[in-house]
Design a protein that fits this description.
Elements: E1 4-7, E2 10-11, H1 17-28, E3 33-41, E4 46-53, H2 55-72, E5 88-97, H3 101-118, E6 123-127, H4 138-142, H5 145-152, E7 174-178, E8 183-189, H6 194-204, E9 209-210, E10 231-232, E11 239-246, E12 251-258, H7 266-279, E13 284-290, H8 295-308, H9 317-328, H10 338-341, H11 343-346, H12 360-368, H13 376-399, H14 408-443, H15 450-491, H16 497-521, H17 528-562
Parallel strand pairs: 5-7, 6-7
Antiparallel strand pairs: 1-4, 1-5, 2-4, 2-5, 3-4, 8-12, 8-13, 9-10, 11-12
Helix pairs in contact: 1-2, 2-3, 6-7, 8-9, 13-14, 13-15, 13-16, 14-15, 15-16, 15-17, 16-17
């Protein structure tokens, strides 16, 4: 699975679109990066740009954008309503999927170091990347703004993390950081009253509401011994919220910024607003997402609502998203299109059709054609996915079997395991063909010079190794499916035991078929220790698979005989 990070640089130009275009062109020049949004503001004279991709391409695109901004934006002439200190004012990196905050921080430091050293721009690290507590808050770093930076940089306590402690009037100073993903999430109410919506917003937002004597809305404000207002915290951490009336829809909403969805996910925020609204005699009718959301957040929401129903969580990705959308009413105001709202879906490469996206008859036709791919490796991965799918089906049927209600969680756990294995094997269907294409590309490389010959030879070796590794992964994942298949044969719905048996047959076939591909691709690999290791481990897996299939079929046939 790809590691994805989002980058949201803020550039100190919001009026001249030709300048903004020069910067975004740099971002779009990097392969593997998807430009998601460009949001200029005339009053602020500032543009917020959002792009996403794997870490290395993203930090390359960020560096190119910062470089271009330093050339085309002259901060000595900049005026705007928003606080600012540099041509590229801030450049946060945000973990999206399959990457930790700790890893993202390291990429932020890598970017900051490169900008500081190569462009000689003073760099402050902030938020999660900050090197000391006082630098975590961006407002503290930016205090004094552009005009105050010449003096600030001379103070020892404000020595930049990277780059010179020297002010350049043209490009100013930049903050590079790592922060959590922010989700803009609005919950709809059956009222037109902004005041009532605000009451609910104050109930849930982390800051809460000002404490008052007597009546919570009109009573005298309570202050501490220093004369500061006393606040009553709300029920949700990492949440900012306000109530407002949306004339376009004719309803009031709780408008929330979820600043850390690992602390307060969207489904938790939704349910909390639901409870607080009910307590005030209001009803939640639906919700809307403003902007984008990571896939994991939607899948977690789907699982949350299925758990509340005591239903199996081992369902497909699309089904989990559907449950999340319907449970939170995300489609109340307008259709919710996952391909337009979920980051991972927005950056999928649509330039070629995946094998797994083909109708079954087209897939069979493509396999039967004179093209050498898809071949036995892809077919083995697909057969393995069918074996895992059958076991998952038995788990889901067992989870919902009448009279077995108290066992729903047991079977849900098995179904989740099966779904994960199935998803990995489905991915390997196309990956096996990709591995074949890598070999073809390597053989097609130029070999005019000695250096080119050397590069070509290494590319062929790497591609040939990968062509062994992919079917070996198919063997491993297909063997993992036996655990779920055997459990369902033993403890699952007895009326579906034959399905578990077919699943075992599929898993064994996938393993034996994939092993043939491991062996045939070994001929192109010069690293004999690598070849020997995979061949030996593959043989052991094949032998265990044959025995595992035999044992499961024995259980299956016994149960069929007892029906």
């Amino acid at each position: 699975m790809k590691k994805l990070i989002e980058c949201v640089p803020n550039f100190s130009e919001g009026r001249d679109m030709s300048i903004i275009k020069q910067i975004t062109d740099e971002i779009e020049s990097v392969e593997g990066v998807k430009l998601l949004d460009v949001d200029p503001g005339k009053a602020t004279n500032r543009t917020v740009v959002t792009f996403v991709g794997e870490p290395e391409p993203v930090i390359e695109a960020a560096f190119l954008a910062i470089t271009k901004a330093s050339k085309v934006i002259d901060m000595s002439k900049h005026k705007g309503e928003h606080p600012r200190m540099g041509a590229t004012d801030v450049c946060p990196l945000v973990p999206v999927s399959n990457i930790s905050m700790e890893e993202t921080v390291e990429y932020a430091k890598k970017l900051g170091k490169r900008v500081g050293e190569e462009l000689e721009i003073p760099i402050f690290l902030y938020e999660n990347a900050a090197t000391e507590d006082k630098r975590k808050n961006l407002a503290t770093i930016r205090a004094g703004e552009y005009e105050g930076m010449p003096d600030k940089l001379q103070k020892p306590e404000w020595k930049p993390d990277f780059g010179p402690a020297k002010f350049n009037a043209r490009h100013g100073v930049t903050a590079v950081g790592a922060r959590d993903f922010l989700v803009a999430f609005n919950v709809n109410l059956n009222t037109t009253s902004t005041r009532r919506a605000n009451a609910v917003a104050f109930d849930v937002r982390e800051r809460g509401r000002v404490k008052r004597e007597g009546h919570p809305l009109t009573g005298k404000i309570v202050k501490d011994e220093k004369g500061n207002k006393v606040w009553i915290p709300g029920s949700l951490k990492a949440v900012k919220a306000i109530g407002w009336f949306i004339e376009e829809y004719g309803v009031a909403q709780i408008s929330m910024n979820l600043t850390n969805i690992s602390i307060t996910p969207v489904h938790v925020a939704f349910d909390e607003v639901y409870e607080k609204a009910n307590a005030r005699g209001l009803r939640v009718t639906g919700s809307e997402l403003v902007g984008l959301i990571p896939l994991k957040a939607m899948l977690d929401a789907g699982k949350y609502f299925l758990t509340k129903q005591q239903r199996s969580l081992g369902v497909s990705e699309s089904e989990l998203i559907k449950i999340a959308v319907k449970s939170m009413g995300l489609d109340e105001l307008k259709p919710f299109k996952p391909e337009d709202k979920i980051i991972e879906y927005m950056i999928e490469d649509d330039s070629r059709q995946k094998l797994v996206d083909m109708p079954l008859d087209d897939f069979a036709d493509e396999t039967a054609s004179e093209s050498p791919a898809p071949g036995g490796g892809s077919i083995s991965a697909y057969v393995g996915s069918l074996g895992a799918s059958l076991a998952t089906m038995v788990a889901n049927l067992s989870s919902h079997k009448r009279g077995w209600d108290e066992r729903w969680k047991e079977f849900s756990n098995w179904a989740e395991k099966g779904q994960k294995i199935k998803d990995e094997l489905v991915h390997l269907v196309d990956e096996d063909t990709n591995a074949f294409n890598k070999i073809m590309d390597a053989f097609g490389m130029s070999k005019s010079t000695d250096e080119e010959k050397k590069i070509r030879k290494q590319a062929i070796e790497d591609a040939s190794k990968y062509a062994m590794e992919v079917p070996f992964k198919v063997m491993q994942r297909s063997y993992d499916a036996f655990e779920v298949i055997e459990a369902m044969a033993k403890t699952g719905n007895p009326n579906s035991v034959s399905d578990a048996g077919v699943g075992a047959l599929c898993a064994r076939t996938a393993i034996m078929g994939a092993y043939l591909n491991v062996k045939i691709n070994a001929s192109g690999v010069e690293d004999k220790s690598f070849v020997s290791k995979l061949i030996d481990e593959g043989l052991k897996l094949e032998e265990k698979a044959v025995q595992r299939e035999k044992d499961i079929l024995h259980i299956v046939n016994q149960k069929i005989a007892e029906l």
